[in-house]
Amino acid sequence: MRLTNVAHLRLPFGRLWGYDVVVGDRGAALPVSFDQGRHVRAGDRPGSWMALSFRLPGPVDRGHLATAWLAVVARHGTLRSVFSPGVDGDPVLHEVAVAPGAWVEHPVGPGQAVNDALRDVLDAACGPYQRPSHRLCVLETADGPTVVVGADHAHVDMWSMLVVARDLLAALAAVEAGTPPPTVPAAPFAEHTRALADRPLAPTDVRRRWTEVLEASGDVMPCFPMPLGDVAAPQRERVEVRDVLDVDAAAAIGIQARELGVSTLALVVSAMTEVTRDLAGGPLRAVFPVHSRTPTPDSGATWHDSVGWFITNSVLESTDPDPAACAAAVKEAVRLGSWPLADVLAPWGGMPAAPGMFAVSWLDLRRLPVRVDATGLEAQYVGAAIRTDGVMLWFVLDESGLHLRCRYPDTAEARRNVGGWLDALVARLRAEARASVGGRLRLGGRTYRVERAARADVPALVALLADDEISRPREGAELAHYEAAYDAVARDPAHLLAVVREEGGDGAVVGTFQLTVLPGLSRSGATRLQVEGVRVATGHRADGLGTAMLEWAHAHGVARGARLAQLTTDRERDRAQAFYARLGYTDSHVGMKRPL
């Protein structure tokens, strides 16, 4: 899922609608979490929200969409609560009833971009003290509707936005089928806040580590380790969105992490630690948001399907780029954020934020128990546009790879220093992926590397394909035909045309195969891995390279959800059939081909 910013969000032109619900009088008081209080105390302001956008596959009746949205609001208590200023300046939170309302069209002014109109709507509707502080919008276009759900951060986090999208789509499907939408209440965030408040206070060692990290940062939360220019007052923001690793490189990094017994996050922290040491001459220190959705011992409640701000700010200190040390640093950061922070931060009068604060957020969508078809829905996390005096870095890891979004003050020094730091980080992660064990095959004293084929490899691949008596008559077209075929394969992410090189020497291509991931409905919706064009150079056929290549291919398929591998081979290839049989393939089906 792509991370983007409302200023960068590309939307087709159309009519922009927002749904006005009717909010009743304040009801029972609800507890306010530490982070909610800190956020809401700053008051209504532009850009305190987050949003999720996604496209629906076809036209939608706005009445159906409103009914589905009301079912989502009924399911999640935090969407039926509002903040108001207390007599002492601290915000108070109350339950409210939410009743059906009406759709309102938000005009898009002459010359105004649609995303700017959307930004105005969300800035106005999703402030901390708005009633309610969330907004359902739909953009009706010739290409179909795009739904945008925005909410003030006091009520949601990024995980919550996935829950909202999933529940909205389920409710809409039910409404369109003529059945009542599901409204079974999820565990409310207010209950989570009460449970956290009842937890024991932090032990001495946790308080000591907080003190050490904050003192090392100048008695404030960690700041970006290089100059940002004049940020005494918030500046216009600059937002960079980068696709750091594609699916192959992300898989290679993941395999490397498993080989080392750490997480992918630990390897990313290792890269950040090394870059910070090289460019700033010091350790990596950052604010590190951690989630608190783990079950509470007392209630036993689980929060995976709940909506709320289940995030609190911890601190991460990493002084050693060794992956094991970075894994320990991440583990410590999670522990430091697992205690009531109001008490921990009381000596500083609360969270001691300062200009230049540096925060790093990590979300691995592949591991979340809440899933939506982000690719099919063209779903995007949408950040607000604000003025800022700090550096905020978000990582999202999903089936398409590793992505980041970074927001920082748009000053000359910040462009140079933050931009340079990001350049170095991305370059290091890509180099790590290229050098990782994920793309290596080790056989005796030889090491081979599996890579996505480049266009310059096409002549070598053609030579491999033609290197036997059966294939030779089928090959021999002009190179341009093969290059056009390569372009078609390379454009489609479902295909991997791989080359295998022997490390060292001239890096000559000694093997190839093509893998295709095929989703399907049969076999209970099983995804298949199609294996084609397996070839090994003559001088390497007796050392087990073919077996290693197929094992690598199977791991590639498993990592992408495949439950079955399939291939075809010519009836005359007796040795090839015996080879595949040794690897567990059976001739259970009859393969048939027809020229077209």
Automatic annotation (TrEMBL):
Pfam families in alphabetical order: Acetyltransf_1
Enzyme class, first EC level, given as a word: transferase
Domain N-acetyltransferase, first and last residues per copy: 448-596
Xref: InterPro entries: Acyl_CoA_acyltransferase, CAT-like_dom_sf, GNAT_dom
Annotated EC: 2.3.1.-
UniProtKB keywords: Acyltransferase, Transferase
Domain of life: Bacteria
Record-level Gene Ontology MF annotations: acyltransferase activity
Record PANTHER family: FATTY ACID SYNTHASE, NONRIBOSOMAL PEPTIDE SYNTHETASE
The name this protein goes by in its record: GNAT family N-acetyltransferase
